[in-house]
Write a structure and sequence with these properties.
The complex is a heterodimer of chains A (306) and B (430). With 306 residues, chain A is of the alpha/beta class. Helices cover 37% and strands 31% of the residues of chain A. In chain B, the strands form two sheets. A four-stranded mixed sheet of chain B has the order 2-1-3-4, sandwiched between helices. In chain B, strands 5-6 form a two-stranded antiparallel ribbon. The chains are: A alpha/beta (306), B mainly alpha (430).
Chain lengths: 306, 430
């Protein structure tokens, strides 16, 4: 069952649509990526899901119910820009934000200390936020979002500015939370992380959804785009084939752009076997980066032409 | 509502624990005393005329010059140079001026003061007060008055004022209460700016630090704003409570010291006696005012309602702003309403029952200062008090509603400062 579901959600600022007719569903326990170029409307969308903003049109279902104020204490949120009281200690910050999510003071303290330990931040509780480095305060910000053990975690660009070591800690924790059944929704434009992490994605551009589905489905939809051969012999047969272009040719290794998908790849492989020795053949799926760039460019040109 | 309470409590506790709070609580009364005492101090300093020197040229046969010099030797001295030299010294600024007592000066009751002009009203007043006192005395003596008569002539008539009400007859404290009321109004005026400013700065800080986004992911913007306003207001009340306790403590301590020093029955009596000749206003200030419960309740009500009214609007303004400069621009239309009553307060003080004073004091933006002033200065008809309270409560609700709408949209907007027209649209569309 969908844990969170958006139906025709739109958000307008004057005449400008930050989000336009957005519909998608996030299954429980999935890692869901919201992708899009800068200014696409990702942050607005996450703010609507966390009920910081109310949509102008459309509706949102949270665990089957229309999203309401009282759901906020079941949502954890890490905003893009870190927001903590600089003059207060780590523990005071965590306790206060924990209490706002409905925890008692003692419970918030207990969980804060546990999480500090878990995030390799043991012993920071008495430090003031202003004394922390950027990466350190990012950890605290993350703890704020998970302190009340929310079934839905919403992260806006969670990995920007993290060093590889800290990023590893974050990824571990996210994997743990997902294994426990937490639904995690995050925005990013770092494509490599999406491929590594996400189950499902939506790609938005200029406030609209331009692509959505599971990572597998989307890749399958874009099909095989490239064939790489390691070939010994006369490769002039390639010139006679229609609908291909040779992207790279070096030391007997050839990279071919396809237009006819897997069938075309199979025909080329058959030809290659006739004309020489085929040491290696590989059909390459498009990377998410390529899909992203292509889709964004396509929708932009569609908008220009319409 | 529950989150408002949490936010208010957090605001209260995190502020009360700071060094700044403790220091300001201790220093503010000192500052207030300085502000109140400064005009008196300055005027007394001015009266001594420190650097002013006036030579007395006595051409009369009555030897008035020595008496005048004896009366104020820091100002007057007997001239023993010719008038031409005195004139040159005045022009060279080594002398303020010279006073010429003509041969028939006492008989004609007139003297001439030569100066380079200027010197302010203070100098003129000091000279004429001294000359008139001496001349009156000398003329009375010349006409055969004895010392008893002189003392009688110099006495000031005391006017005891009794106020009659239906229930009882009591000492009329109008003068004293008016001054106390004036002090209270100034305190309210200053506190509106101080605590309004605290709310404003803290809203802006939360906005620029993006903390507000975390808050908004846990509570409704309206509740966040309300919690902040109430929390900071509680800090204000708490600080006042500390001041009252501090004041009582200090006055008990000072009172016992004075009693033990002078044997006088009360500190007020002792001080009043000591300063009797100096200034009536000073005496009034040093007396312990007998404030009724009603006066204190009025002060608390008008402070709190003014605070909530203005600080809510300030919170809205800060939410719409991005920088301190934005705040300066945006707050002007609100701040002007805090300042305006201070311009008409002299009028309300002198004629608290005039229709114009009554009408102005009923305007909700002005009530915290002007109605409070009137409640001390006169007997305000009950229906006006009630009307004022009703209007005040209604406008608080209005102000909080308007501010809530600006706040909700403003806190997540960054970039350009909105125009007043845009803010009006935020209010209209919400």
């Amino acid at each position: 069952m969908a844990f969170i579901e958006l139906q025709h959600v739109s958000k307008r600022y004057g005449a400008f649509y930050a989000n336009r007719d957005i519909s998608f569903a996030v299954e429980q326990g999935r890692l869901f990526g919201v992708l899009g170029p800068n200014g696409a409307g990702k942050t607005t969308l996450l703010r609507i899901i966390t009920r910081i903003l109310l949509p102008d049109e459309g509706s949102i279902l949270f665990d089957g119910e229309p999203l309401a104020q009282y759901h906020q204490c079941r949502i954890g949120y890490v905003p893009e820009e870190r927001g903590l009281y600089k003059n207060l200690t780590v523990l005071d910050n965590l306790r206060y934000f924990g209490q706002l999510k409905g925890l008692s003071s003692t419970e918030a303290t207990r969980r804060a200390l546990w999480w500090l330990q878990r995030m390799d931040a043991h012993g920071w509780e008495k430090k003031k936020i202003r004394e922390l480095s950027k990466g350190m305060s990012q950890k605290i910000q993350f703890i704020v979002s998970v302190l009340h053990d929310p079934p839905l975690l919403v992260l806006d660009e969670p990995f920007s500015g993290l060093d590889p070591l800290n990023a590893e800690v974050f990824l571990d924790v996210l994997a743990e939370l997902r294994a426990k059944g937490t639904t995690i929704l995050f925005s990013t434009h770092v494509m490599e992380q999406v491929e590594q992490l996400c189950d499902d994605i939506v790609l938005i551009n200029r406030g609209r959804i331009v692509e959505s589905g599971s990572l597998r489905q989307i890749k399958a939809r874009y099909g095989i785009r490239r064939l790489e051969l390691a070939f010994d012999g006369d490769d002039s047969f390639l010139e006679k084939l229609d609908g291909i272009s040779i992207a790279e040719r070096r030391n007997g290794s050839i990279s071919i752009e396809l237009s006819g998908g897997i069938e075309q790849a199979q025909r080329i492989i058959a030809c290659a076997l006739e004309h020489g020795t085929l040491r290696r053949a590989e059909c390459i799926e498009p990377t998410l980066r390529e899909i992203f760039i292509e889709t964004v460019r396509r929708t932009e040109s569609q908008e220009v032409s319409s | 509502m529950n989150t408002s309470w949490l936010i208010a409590r957090h605001e209260f506790l995190s502020r009360v624990r700071t060094k700044g709070f403790i220091i300001s609580t201790l220093l503010a009364p000192v500052g207030l005393l300085v502000v109140l005492a400064l005009p008196i101090l300055v005027s007394e300093l001015a009266q001594t005329q420190g650097t002013h020197r006036i030579a007395v040229v006595d051409q009369s046969p009555h030897a008035i010059a020595p008496i005048l010099v004896a009366k104020d030797s820091s100002l007057f001295f007997p001239a023993n140079e010719p008038i031409a030299t005195l004139r040159a010294r005045v022009l060279a600024d080594s002398l303020t001026g010279y006073l010429l007592i003509p041969p028939d000066g006492l008989e004609r009751d007139s003297v001439v003061l030569f100066t380079r002009g200027g010197g302010g009203l203070g100098l003129h007043e000091t000279v004429s007060d001294a000359v008139r006192a001496v001349f009156r005395r000398e003329r009375l003596l010349a006409h055969g008055a004895d010392t008893t008569l002189l003392r009688l002539a110099e006495q000031k008539t005391k006017i005891e004022r009794i106020k009659i009400t239906r229930e009882r007859t009591e000492r009329d404290q109008t003068a004293l209460l008016t001054i106390v009321g004036y002090g209270m109004s100034i305190i309210v005026y200053v506190l509106l700016f101080i605590y309004g400013g605290i709310v404003m700065r803290s809203v802006l800080e939360e906005k620029t630090n993006r903390i507000v986004e975390i808050l908004a992911s846990s509570a409704r913007p309206f509740d966040i704003m309300l919690g902040k306003v109430l929390g900071v207001g509680a800090v204000g009340l708490f600080q006042m409570l500390l001041w009252i306790v501090l004041g009582i403590g200090v006055s008990i301590a000072v009172g016992t010291t004075l009693v033990s020093l002078s044997g006088a029955p009360t500190q007020a009596g002792a001080l009043a006696h000591y300063r009797a000749q100096e200034s009536d206003v000073a005496v009034l200030l040093l007396q312990v005012p007998s404030l009724s419960f009603g006066h204190i309740a009025a002060f608390v009500f008008f402070f709190l309602s003014g605070y909530v009214f203005y600080s809510a609007l300030f919170a809205g303004i800060a939410a719409a702003a991005d920088t301190e400069q934005d705040i300066q621009t945006l707050q002007a239309p609100v701040s002007i309403f805090i300042v305006l009553p201070m311009l008409v307060i002299p009028l309300v003080m002198s004629t608290p029952d005039a229709p114009v004073a009554a009408i102005l004091s009923l305007v909700p933006m002005f009530s915290p200062v002007l109605m409070l002033m009137r409640l001390f200065a006169t007997e305000v008809p009950w229906w006006q008090v009630l009307l004022s309270v009703v209007l005040m409560v209604a406008s608080i609700i209005g102000a909080v509603w308007i501010a809530g709408r600006i706040y909700r949209i403003g806190i997540l907007r960054y970039g350009q400062r909105p125009t007043f027209r845009q803010i009006l649209r935020w209010i209209a569309e919400g």
